[in-house]
Amino acid sequence: MAERAGLSRTQSATLIAIGNVTVNGNREKASYKPIAGDRIVAEEPALHEIEMLPESIDIDVMFEDEHLLVVNKSAGMVVHPAPGNWTGTLVNALLGRGGSLAEGAEPDRAGIVHRLDKETSGLLIVAKTDRAHRILSAAIAARRVRRRYAVMIWGHLQGDALTVDKPVARDPRDRKRMAIVNNGRQAKTDFLRLARFGPGDLLRAQLHTGRTHQIRVHLASVGHPVMGDDVYGGSGGRKMVGLEPKRHFLHAAWLQFNHPITGTPMDIRSPLPDDLRNSLRKIGEGEAVAQAEDPLAALGFHD
């Protein structure tokens, strides 16, 4: 089921457990072994059937007013509920804080303007009002929101700068992954090398578009996957570079945009979290810049 439906095994098991999978019209346990001719039907719960529960979960808020907030998301947190992750998400945490959130297009994404992958840490904008949500969404679509990431790759770029402009879409051979696909959606990322270490380069990545897994797919496509990326070929050598299980070295470190209501220029920065800073120290052992308290600032990330 996971393979055919493009879901993870955990997501598939969740749908089976809640009774949303039938075999020939009957519910069966996850251990059921299909035979030729069986008709298996899986249905995701309708959004109106999902009760969005507020939860008391600490989140790091970098900016907040009556119109929006900017959250510094931790690695391991899913942004909004999905099969296998119905609770413990950023949306649950936002609801648990109380106050208003933009309704958005779907009830499980209240306030969410853009997303980050589960194992990607860093800055994310949340709208409190529908007006702010509309304006911010339009600004992202028009590429007026500058989003820049710190990313460590395996190996070394041939030059200090690289632009990857390749279309991205769901991988036709594995629906759980994204891939470079000729008829996919246009995707463009600029990369600038900040430092070169033994096993790889530390880059600043700037998004021009916001496709799912865009940075990770673009870097894998040029033979330099993100360190620690289990999905796109960067998982080897995790212990050597001091990365925790499942974690990849990708951090949304810098946001610049105009406030959707006041028009005030917003400039919000997030230093590397402790786990990535410790990894950088191990990767750049003996390099003074890697041992700095704020290595991104020391490397001119914001120049």
Describe this structure in words.
The structure is a single chain. By secondary structure, this protein is of the alpha+beta class. The protein has three domains: 2-44, no CATH class; 50-142, Pseudouridine synthase (2-Layer Sandwich), CATH 3.30.2350.10; 145-257 and 270-303, 2-Layer Sandwich (Pseudouridine synthase), CATH 3.30.2350.10. It has helices at residues 2-5, 9-17, 90-97, 130-141, 214-221, 274-283, 295-298, and strands at 21-23, 40-42, 60-64, 68-73, 121-127, 146-152, 161-165, 168-170, 178-180, 188-196, 201-207, 250-258, 265-269. The strands form three sheets. Strands 3, 4, 5, 6, 7, 10, 11, 12 and 13 form a nine-stranded mixed sheet that branches. Strands 1-2 form a two-stranded antiparallel sheet. Strands 8-9 form a two-stranded antiparallel sheet. Strand 3 (60-64) and strand 4 (68-73) form a beta hairpin. It is globular, with a radius of gyration of 21 Å. The N and C termini lie far apart (48 Å). The model has no long low-confidence stretch (mean pLDDT 91).
Q: How many H/I helical runs?
A: 7
Order of helices and strands: HHEEEEHEHEEEEEEHEEHH
Mind summarizing the main beta sheet? 9 strands, mixed
Low-confidence regions = none
Strand content: 15-25%
- Decide which structural class fits the backbone: alpha+beta
Fourth CATH level, the homologous superfamily of the largest domain = Pseudouridine synthase
- Counted up, domains total 3
Distance between the termini: 48 Å
Which quaternary structure do these chains form? single chain
What is the radius of gyration computed over CA atoms, rounded to a whole number of angstroms? 21 Å
The assigned CATH architecture of the largest domain is: 2-Layer Sandwich
CATH class assignment of the largest domain: Alpha Beta
Mean pLDDT metric: 91
**What's the overall geometry?**
globular
Strand runs, count: 13
CATH topology-level fold name of the largest domain: Pseudouridine synthase
